[in-house]
Amino acid sequence: MNSIILQIASKYLRIIFLLFAFIALFRGHNQPGGGFIGGLLAALYIVYDSLAFTSDQIKQQLKVRPESYMGVGLLCVLLSFLPSIVTGAPLMQGAWLSVDSSVFGEIKLGTPLLFDLGVFIAVMGVTLMFLFTLSTKK
Amino acid sequence: MLIILILYLVLAFALFLIPKNISKQTPLLIALVQLGIFAFFINYLPNIAAGHVINQSIAWIPHLELNLEFTLDGLSLIFALLISFIGFLVFVYAKTYMKSYTGTARFYFYLTLFSGSMMGLVLSSNFIQLFIFWELTSILSFLLISFFNEKEQARKAAFQSLFVTGFGGLCLFVGIILIGSIVDSYSLSVWLENADVIRSDNKYFPALVLVLLGVFTKSAQFPFHFWLLGAMQAPTPVSAYLHSATMVKAGIFLLMRLYPVLGGTIEWTYIVSVIGALTMLVGAYVAVTQIDIKLILAYTTISALGILTLLLGIDTKLSVKAALVFLFVHAFYKAALFMLAGFLTKISGTRVLYKFGGLIKHTPWGFIIAMLALLSMAGIPPMLGFIGKELIYEAKFESPWVSSLLIVLGVTANVFMVAVSFLLLFKIFWGESRMDVTSALSKYKYLLISPGILALLSLGLGLFPDLLATLIEPAISIIRGYDIQLKLKLWHGFNLILGISIITVLGGTLLFIFIYNNKGAISAWQRINNRLFSIDFTRVFSTGLEKFITFSSKNTHLIQHGYNRYYIITIIIFTSLLLSFQLYMNRGWEINSDFTLRPFYISGLVVIITLSALMSVFSKNSIFTVTAMAVTGYGISLIYLYYSAVDLAITQIIIETLMVVMFVLVLRRLPNFIKLSGRSTKIRDAVIALSFGVIMTFLALKAINVDIHPSISDYFVENSAVKAYGKNVVNVILVDFRALDTMGEVTVLVIAALGVFTLLNLKKSGK
Amino acid sequence: MEILLSALTGLLYAGGVYLILRRSILKFIIGIIFLSNATNLLVFLSAGIIHGKPAFINEHEPDPNLLADPLPQALVLTAIVIGFGIVIFTLALKAKFFSATSTDDSDELINTDQ
Fold first, then answer.
1. Most buried of the four, B112, B484, B658, B709, by CB within 10 Å?
2. Which value does ipTM take for this structure?
3. Closest Cα in chain B to C71
4. Mutate which of A17, A25, A30, A51 to disrupt the B interface (most B C-beta within 10 Å)?
């Protein structure tokens, strides 16, 4: 499809989609959401884009190839294990860092968040890979 | 001793690193190493002769009580000496023999590895470990027989030998395990201590038969002898090394090793000696009528292996001694003869006995060596073979049962041996010269070095047999369990045994003269033999194998028909039966929940899901099918949402959306459904599906109402906020408590994505 | 309600089995989706179903026993995503198969491995 309305709209919808995806990711530890849902939501925006643009155009806009997303995601997942290995704790035990900020109050940052971020990126990469591969015409 | 094995292993792999310009000297290098190892073992001789036994044990898999155990006693020492010494000569010989072939690096690699495995076999005192080396020698034999792998015959023969020896190897393995289960150990020392327990156990007989099957296949005993004939497809150094001097003797070695454990019973005596006698007779008899010189030697080898087996079977004081002496006798003359046969084939280009003639003029040295070796084979003084034969006769006389029959059989076999020896000597070297070999002679004269040394040894040890006696004495005490003073003499004085020897030689000579003078005799005899022994073992083997394969492929086709849906039907029906059986067995449960339709909107949802599912199943339009499937999915996500699974509902909705998009992307390329099954098939499938559905309904009900294990969820709920600082318990389980599972899942997804990418993006190769 | 939902599970299983017995590969794939949905539902049901008490820790409601069981939810969530990956992979296989053979009939598969 090559609809000018969809193309213009997608520019703005994109921001909203990604915002929702990240909100889902970051609040996931306490409220509904999380890496899987966030990653899938982020991928949904590409699905929406694919209605407006051809897959080559989307690939150009993305600049990063889906393989790289998958790799970076897995890397994040592995990195989140690093603190437990370094400190000698049982593997994958969460490590937490408390950050006091005057604006948001106390924020707890921990390896599970990094882990969830990895899941987010990897799931998004996987879905993008599915989408691009299946939509390529031979 | 482990160091020796490691040396062989390292040497074998180092062969590939030898630079091209000096690679011609590779065999000499290995030969030198073999000589060094020979010297290493000779060093131990005084120690061993004094009655010491050297043990070495290295922890390997301690939890399984498997250790690397090596032992150097009289028995393993003489085999180690034979392996390294003949190995030395074979590599010297191979340098000249193999130089015209390609792929020699591979050849020396295999041959070196073989030396190492054979050495490992004779040094092992743990039987599991021994079995591993045993199989290694079989595999290397296979690789060496098929060295000329461009020849179909060689490939077939190699496969046949692997099949036969592999079958025997498995039997041996089971036998070892059976014996091991009696005494709960695989260590030689434990077996020796508990020999009486083993012999009186009721697992003794099956274990004995299985072990003997392994021995007989390896040592080419009748009726498994045929693989050795096929093995003559191998290059001559291999025939000389593996198939006469060492590998086929592995079975004999095992017989000697196990003699104190399994031997001495009436079963042992009967089985081993009868098979040995049969092999001895058949081998010698058939050897006379062959025309291929390598095959003649192969048949005489079979006969000699039969003699060794027979000697270990008849339980007399002298028989083990005779067997050990004959082991050396045979190794020396047969390896020499094989090497000579290779030499003759090289210079003349033929292996057919009757094409030779008058070679004495061209190669007098060859004649002398052949004469010495053949005299030893015929058992004529002053060769070592004579001493061996005398001892054998003596041992047979001592046999407590049917000694006269044994003597008659032995004399008959030896008459044939004598005839074969003379026949080979005179047909090849005597008579008119029919071939021009002068050009090839100088090229291959080095091939005579190794057989020359062996022939000289046959002569020298015949004249001074005491040297051999010191070697053999400790081995006898190992096998028989007590010390024996061994006197080996060339001249025993005039006695009965000498008389029998004379009769043997006379008979053989007469037979030889008859064959030599009657040109048609051999062919007539062969015709008779073909009638008499109408069973061609090789043919029986290959047709048996073919029949087996066609039989199994026919029957496999009944089950493995290739129709996906029939496989699924089988699986589904079987699962249904098992599940319904299980449900029936545990039918004593109550349904706690009442049947209600409240709340009505969930009931309505169920109706919608049902309708869309039915539509998805029966629709003829693929877009409808996919859309209806999505409606089903969305409906299920609402059920999740209503019953407190928020995350689940969100995920299900997004996934369902993505799924529809991707289906549509693929469906663009596909045509609509076409009608593929008839009405009756549909009804059949519907019945199967419905019954499966009913069973799953009951299973679901049961799963709801039966609670067997306490749930671990409480732990997660209690600790989620305290330990993992998260209030969404589902998410905390995913990213913290069970993070490893999630990581695995993400990895699976990534692999699936890569799979999709490769499937659809890679170009077809080759087209 | 459990009985009705169990029946629904059984129905989804029946539909899935009927579909994977079709010769059309596309129907086979949809059958797999049915089966995975049915299995998810089965696991979800087996823990017992509670309305309106999602598994969130709440300071006002200290008693954790009143919450819905989070473990099967986590399991099913994983299963949904994995099932998605598997279905798409099968779909790609099917697309490849179709481009190679131009047929949707699984009976044509019987001779391809010879």
1. B112
2. 0.93
3. B713
4. A30
Q: Are B455 and B336 in contact (CB under 8 A)?
A: yes
Burial B666-703 (b: 16+ CB within 10 A, else e): bbeebeebeeeeeeeeeeebeebbbbbbbbbbbbbbbb
pLDDT 10s digits, B26-80: 888 889 999 999 999 888 888 888 878 888 888 877 777 778 888 888 888 889 9
Region of B519 (left: φ > 0; alpha: ψ -120 to 50; beta: rest) is alpha
Asked if B661 is an interface residue toward chain A (Cβ–Cβ < 8 A), one would say yes
The domain locations on chain C are 2-50+68-111
As annotated, the residues of chain B forming the CATH 1.20.120.1200 domain(s) are 564-712
**H-run or E-run covering B135:** helix B127-145
Give C58's strand partners.
C61
C45 and chain B: CB distance < 8 Å anywhere? yes
C-alpha span between B273 and B588 (Å, rounded): 67
Asked if C99's CB is within 8 angstroms of A138's CB, the reply is: yes
Residue A30 contacts B, CB cutoff 8 Å: yes
B564-712 adopts what CATH topology? Four Helix Bundle (Hemerythrin (Met), subunit A) (1.20.120)
Can you name the CATH fold of C2-50+68-111?
Helix Hairpins (1.10.287)
pLDDT in tens, B222-266: 888 888 888 888 888 888 888 888 888 999 999 988 888 888 888
| B79: nearest Cα among B437, B331, B338, B388 | B331
- Of B643, B655, B671, which is closest to C49 when you measure between CB atoms? B643
Q: How far is residue C50's CA from residue B713's CA, in Å, rounded to a whole number?
A: 15
What are the distances in angstroms from CA A70 to CA B79, B197, B506?
Answer: 61, 65, 89
